[in-house]
Amino acid sequence: MRERVIEGYEHSVVAAAGLIAHGRGEAFDYLIGEESGPFAASSITASACAFILAERPVVSVNGNVAALCPSELVELSEAAGAPLEINLFYRTAEREQAIERLLRSSGARNVLGVGLDASAVIPELGSERRRVDPRGIAAADLVFVPLEDGDRTEALVAMGKRVVTVDLNPLSRTAQRASITIVDNILRALPALIREVRRWAQRPRSEAVQVLDAFDNRGNLSSCLTFISERLHTLAQS
Ligand code: PTJ
Questions:
Q1: Cα–Cα distance between 6 and 183 in angstroms, integer?
Q2: N vs C: which end of the chain shows fewer Cβ within 10 Å?
Q3: Distance from the CA of 186 to the center of ligand 1, in angstroms?
Q4: Element of type H or E holding 93
Q5: What is the pLDDT of residues 124-179, one digit of tens each?
Q6: What's the gap in Å between 205 CA and the centre of ligand 1?
Q7: In this structure, are residues 130 and 122 in contact, taking their beta carbons and an 8 Å threshold?
Q8: Angle at CA 101, nearest 5°, toward 82 and 54?
Q9: Cα separation, 187 vs 95, whole angstroms
Q10: Is residue 180 within 8 Å of residue 42, measured between CB atoms?
Q11: What's the whole-model pTM score?
C-alpha cells in the first residue's frame, strides 16, 4: 500500500499531505489489528442500504483513494449507480488530469468534477474542495467521501446530504461528524461494500429502510473505541 501511495505521489495523483495522511491511517490500522472489525461490517451494511435508497448518490475521489483502489472505485460506482467525481483539497489541473487518466485506465467511462465542470460551490468552505460539479456532489443526496477532511464533511452534512466515509481514525472530525462511518482500511472496506451493495440491490427496499433506521453511528464508533481499548489491554497483559 505504501508503495502505491508513493508511486501516486510521483505521478501527481497523491498530494504531499496525502503521504502524511497515509501514515496516520497505518498507525490506526495497527490499533485495530489490521483486520476488519465487527464495527466495520455493520457500518458497511448500513452504507450499502443508504446507497440503494439514495436517489442521487455520488462517489467523491481524492488522490489517496485513487492511488490505492482505482478499479474498486469504478466497480462501486457501477454497482451503486453513483458517478465518480474528482474532488481535491489540494486541487491543481495537473492532479485532476492525472487522477482522471488513472480512473479512465481503470475502466471509468464518465468522471465528473474536472476543470470547468467543477463550477458549483459548497457554501462556507474555504479550500479548493469547495468547487464541485453541479451534476454531481452539488445535486447529490448521498456523498461517499472516503479519507476526507473534517471541514468538508461538516459542510456536506450542513447542506442536508447523507455523508458516508471510510476512515481508520475513529476520532477524526470526519469519522465523528459523518452520517455513516466505516472504520476500516479502504482496501478492505471497498470490496466488502461493493458486495453488500450488490446484495442489497436484490432485496426489498423496505428492509434496507429498517437497517438504515436502526443504525447508530455514534454507538458504532463507541464499539470501535471499546474494541481498541480492550485489544490494547489484552496485548499489554500478554
Ligand atoms: O487528494 P487531496 O488533495 O484531496 O488530499 C487528500 C488528503 C488525504 C491529503 C486530505 O483529504 C486530508 O488531509 O485528509 P485528512 O484530514 O488527513 O484525513 C484522512 C484520513 O484518512 C485520516 O483520518 C487517516 O487516518 C485516514 N486514512 C489514511 N489512510 C487510510 C485512511 N483510512 C482508511 N484507509 C486508509 N488506507
A1: 23
A2: C
A3: 10
A4: helix 93-105
A5: 666 667 889 999 999 999 999 999 988 889 999 999 999 999 999 999 999 999 99
A6: 32
A7: yes
A8: 5
A9: 22
A10: no
A11: 0.96
